[in-house]
Amino acid sequence: MKTEHTNSIVSVFPTSILTSNMNFNEDERGNLLKAVYDIYDNDERGKRKASENKKFGYTTFLSKINLNNDPRFAKLKDLIGQDLNSYINHINIDCSSQEVYLSEIWINIQAPGTYVAAHRHHNCIMTSVYYLQVGDGAGELIFIDAKESHYMILPEYSKETKYNAISVKITPREGLNIMFPSWLMHEVAHNLSNKDRIIIGFNYKIRKAAKLKDK
Ligand SMILES: [Fe+2]
């Protein structure tokens, strides 16, 4: 009698990344670029930090993180908020007892030759990066597999797939938004283009929802 044998494979703990396109018209994009460089021009501290921090791997200009209520970013904030809602629905965050709120907006100007070392966005739940300006060869955003314990034995693979990759690279383009969980380690490859790579970043945190008022 033949032995019955069947098997099946399921994937567990997948990590979801949302991408969207936001192609502003020429005027809107021009206004965003102007806002970014106005902020840069008026931030001597940020410019100084960008050169001082070279040895730590942070070679790019980081603005202050307090641009949440800057009206120049209001439309972008609204569109990214819509992406956030899609992501919240996707992973079923329960918003009846807690809220996911925007904690920070900042700009990052990555001049030619600069890069960003691997990091996470601590104390946040979701992070989004919008690419306002990207030159040819600007370098990828690289996500690094969070399942670090499997690095202790790495076989050779005949083909890279999402089931065996230890990093995932996304080539940026203008108008691209990438939203990902803030715990996911990531780095940014050297900007090999001759243009500033400009990112507008968003961090979201979580807190208990305000108590409903007594009826
Ligand atoms: Fe980051």
Describe the SSE topology.
Blueprint (H helix, E strand, L loop, with lengths): L17 E4 L4 H16 L2 H9 L8 E2 L11 H18 L6 E13 L5 E4 L6 E8 L7 E4 L22 E4 L5 E6 L4 E3 L8 E12 L7
Antiparallel strand pairs: 1-8, 2-3, 3-10, 4-9, 5-8, 5-10, 6-7, 6-9
The chain binds fe (ii) ion.
Fe (ii) ion binds next to loops.
Describe the 3D structure.
The chain has 3 helices and 10 strands; from the N terminus they run E-H-H-E-H-E-E-E-E-E-E-E-E. It has 215 residues and is of the alpha+beta class. The chain has one domain (18-213): Jelly Rolls.
Provide the low-confidence segments as ranges. Answer: none
Strand content: 25-35%
Number of strand elements? 10
Number of domains: 1
Radius of gyration: 20 Å
**N-to-C terminal Cα separation, in Å?**
71 Å
For CATH, the homologous superfamily is named as: q2cbj1_9rhob like domain
Helix content: 10-25%
Shape by Cα distribution: globular
Structural class: alpha+beta
Jot down its keywords.
globular, Jelly Rolls, 10 strands, binds fe (ii) ion, single chain, 215 residues, six-stranded antiparallel sheet, alpha+beta, four-stranded antiparallel sheet
Q: What's a concise summary of this model?
A:
The protein has 215 residues and is α+β, with helices and mostly antiparallel strands. 20% of the residues lie in helices and 28% in strands.
